[in-house]
Design goal:
By secondary structure, this protein is mainly alpha-helical. Helices cover about 60% and strands about 5% of the residues. Among the domains are: about 5-165, Rossmann fold (3-Layer(aba) Sandwich); about 185-380, no CATH class. A five-stranded parallel β-sheet has the order 2-3-4-1-5, with helices on both faces. Strands 6-8-7 form a three-stranded antiparallel β-sheet.
């Protein structure tokens, strides 16, 4: 899988080699170090010597140095006929002898020496090699080595380094979509990116192992993803050497997205100590009463390494242990042994609960399991709308869109209209686009069967048109919705007030807005929605009540969960704009710079607002 990131890394490595005689490429398994060195070796117009080394040699002192010198003899056998026996000599003496041979040998210009996994060598060879590379000054020879990591105490410390970093999940998703040329659904790309954990090479292996139906994402997605031999081999490298006593723990953790630690003690009494060891190595993560395998690729490898009989036996025991201790995990494990009419809906509800507990990945796994056990998505449509809304609030737009799409085709008109309303909001947040038809976004049958939901759809559209300053359209939609006022839910009543505030503020009238803020000050924010509070704050800002606008945002932040990034980010946008309009330029600059963008952002929320604020920032900076 080629990527802009890999091309950038090649350019950075070439720049290092042009300035220095040696460079170290550092990066964990799967980050592309091997591919980078292979691309360097295959570059035309140069002589390349690659040094093979196996870690079994590491028990022999100076074995790494001997293999390096043996490889260098391909360049000049006589010059590199160096006596590498230590005898009375020090490691520094050997380093000086090899360095002298490098400087005197007959080496062609542009020769490159490549030494993968130099940190796997014996410690003496690493020390000697580090000494050589820090002093290499021969322009004819360039040396590149790779290591997993490099600290200040490393034998290779001080050598120019190219550090390969894990790619952000959003960037991996984008890479997957580009590479698949339209043959991969967004949600399948998201699952692959999650499993790859920042590793581009792992991403390609995972996608290659997907079946066509899994790529399309039209049905329930497998959890964990099925993987092939090469991806499994990478996972074993990531995991490293594992004590036999730990294997039962990993197997139990692998059969579920989460495992309740309490019930696990009934299977393995010493699990606390074993989990602590795995946690210290970064293999396992603890989250409250749960533990799970940190790397999805490792989980998949351990999971599929077991036969179905072994997995079934584990599920049966864990289902028994979790009974009365963890209903969610009992439902998960029991779904592999006993399925009834309630199983799918129970798993979907559990998934929603985990998502609201901010365990999004685990929650999605529960929902996908529920979908795999239901004959049609329509059985879960109402729950899928709730799940999609929870994901939307927390910034997971991909799976929110997936579940909205499933629910949009629901047989129940009320559910279908709710899903459509949520879909309109999601599309606007992502692209600021709205349906082209102003009024007829519902059928006559839906208006008859679900007037409350149709009214909410109308008001949501009206508020979004206000945000695009399309006031005539917003007014028309509000008027149509008012014809259904007798059917308004509490949510619709708040939306209607939010639209009125926005319209009045755009016209320069502040009476209604101030009235609503006074009510907020007297009664508090209980029962108010984030949408309402954002509209109130925005309307107060537009009518130059800046302190009141800030106070409204304060109420919003007190109400919304910290992980509700959809509301928090929009509140940040608004707070920055309030500071600009109030003339607090220094404060505004600080606020704009604190807003997460790019890799730091969980999702792209209201890109139009980001661009406006960045433009203002550039203007303020001159």
């Amino acid at each position: 899988m080629s990527s802009g990131g890999q091309s950038e890394n090649i350019g950075r490595l070439n720049a290092l080699l042009a300035r220095h005689g040696a460079a170290v490429v550092t990066g964990e398994v799967g980050l592309g170090a091997t591919q980078l060195l292979t691309e360097l070796e295959d570059r035309p117009g140069q002589r390349t010597v690659s040094i093979p080394y196996h870690r079994v040699e590491a028990t022999i002192r100076c074995s790494g140095l001997e293999i390096v010198v043996a490889g260098l003899k391909a360049l000049d056998a006589a010059a590199f006929d160096v006596d590498l026996r230590l005898g009375d000599r020090t490691e520094l003496d050997l380093a000086e002898d090899v360095l002298h041979a490098m400087h005197t040998a007959d080496i062609a210009e542009g020769t490159v020496l490549v030494i993968p996994r130099a940190d796997a060598m014996d410690t003496a060879s690493q020390s000697i090699l580090g000494h050589i590379l820090r002093r290499l000054s021969d322009s004819r020879l360039r040396v590149v080595i790779s290591t997993r990591e490099m600290t200040e105490e490393s034998p290779f410390s001080g050598i120019p380094r190219l550090e390969l970093r894990p790619m952000a999940r959003q960037d991996l998703m984008a890479l997957a979509m580009r590479s698949a040329h339209g043959q991969l659904s967004e949600e399948s790309a998201a699952l692959a990116a999650r499993a790859a954990a920042g590793r581009p090479h792992a991403l390609q292996l995972i996608i290659d192992d997907m079946t066509p139906s899994h790529r399309e994402g039209q049905f329930a997605l497998p959890v964990p993803l099925t993987i092939g031999a090469e991806a499994a081999a990478m996972a074993r490298k990531i995991l490293g050497d594992v004590d036999v006593a730990v294997e039962p723990v990993l197997k139990i953790l692998a059969i579920a997205p989460l495992t309740s630690i309490g019930p696990l003690r009934r299977e393995i009494p010493e699990v606390g100590e074993l989990l602590s060891d795995l946690e210290s190595r970064g293999v396992v993560v603890r989250h409250g009463p749960y533990a799970y395998i940190a790397e999805e690729l490792v989980r998949a490898t351990v999971h599929w390494s077991m036969g179905s009989k072994e997995r079934s036996a584990l599920h049966a025991r864990l289902s028994e242990y979790c009974s009365g201790a963890s209903a969610q995990m009992e439902h998960w494990h029991r779904s592999f042994a006993l399925v009834d009419d309630e199983t799918a809906s129970l798993l979907a509800r559990d998934g929603l609960s985990l998502i609201t507990y901010d365990l999004l990945d685990a929650g999605i796994d529960f929902v996908e399991r529920a979908l795999s056990l239901s004959s049609t998505a329509d059985e879960l449509a109402e729950l899928l709308v709730e799940i999609a809304e929870a994901l939307l609030t927390r910034g997971d737009f991909v799976f929110a869109a997936r579940y909205i799409q499933f629910a949009t085709d629901a047989a129940a008109p009320a559910v279908a209209v709710r899903a459509r309303t949520l879909g309109v909001r999601l599309t606007f947040i992502r692209s600021q686009a709205l349906p082209t038809r102003l009024i007829n976004n519902w059928s006559r049958a839906e208006l008859t069967a679900a007037p409350r939901e149709v009214a909410t759809l109308l008001l949501s559209l009206s508020l979004l048109h206000c945000q695009r300053r399309e006031l005539a359209e917003a007014q028309e939609l509000l008027a149509t919705a008012e014809g259904l006022r007798v059917h308004f839910s509490d949510e619709a009543l708040l939306l209607a007030d939010a639209v009125r505030m926005a319209l009045e503020a755009e016209r320069g009238n502040d009476e209604f807005v101030v009235e609503k803020f006074t009510a907020l000050s007297e009664q508090g924010g209980e029962g108010l929605s984030p949408e309402y509070l954002l509209s109130l704050a925005s309307s107060l800002m537009m009518t130059e009540h800046y302190a009141s606008a800030q106070a409204s945002l304060h109420v919003l932040r007190e109400m919304a969960p910290v992980k509700a990034v959809l509301w928090w980010v929009q509140a940040q946008y608004l707070e920055a704009e309030i500071a600009i309009r109030a003339g607090n330029i220094g404060h505004a600059l600080g606020l704009i710079e604190s807003i997460p963008v790019g890799e730091e952002a969980r999702a792209e929320i209201r890109r139009d607002r980001q661009l406006v604020l960045q433009t203002w920032r550039l203007l303020m900076l001159g």
